[in-house]
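ESCALATION

Customer reports they have been waiting on this structure for their group meeting. Please prioritize. Original submission:
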Amino acid sequence: MIEHWELLGVAPVLAAALWTDIRSMRIPNRITVPAAAGGVAVQTVISGWDGMTAALAGAGAGLILLLLMYGIGAVGAGDVKLFAAIGAWTGAAFTVQTLLYSLLFGAVIGWGIVLWRQEGLRRLRTAAGMLAGIYITRNPRLYAGSGREEMLRFPFMLAVVPGTLLAMWGA
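Update from on-call: job pushed to the front of the queue and completed.
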């Protein structure tokens, strides 16, 4: 169960990350690193070794899951460190739940942008062509990186904030 003080610890971090991500599409280390360290420290002071273990598990869950997404170019390094900080404050289960809701909001935002720009059919044709090529050649490496310069970009924090709120509401 998520506690109110944990949410109070995460709220200013999310607000600062939202502000910087909207302005520059970056979340600087001066926000994420102290937030992660603070989450571990506060959890340790309040709950001792169990708190420290939960904080490190949460930070690890956020870090590992977002590193996978970073590896495919879906998020930036600041998002990775931000989810480690969220995990340090709230634990692994809440972090995973937040990520799932954030991905859903991100998909809605992404498709909204695609539809707004009226490029939905072009993007579907490109994806279908890539999948057909992979199926025919059986070599996904031939298509790795193709279209990366065309990837849809928007501040992921626009999805993380409502994802976090929905996770809090469900907690």
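Sent to customer with the following note: The radius of gyration is 18 Å.
Escalation resolved.
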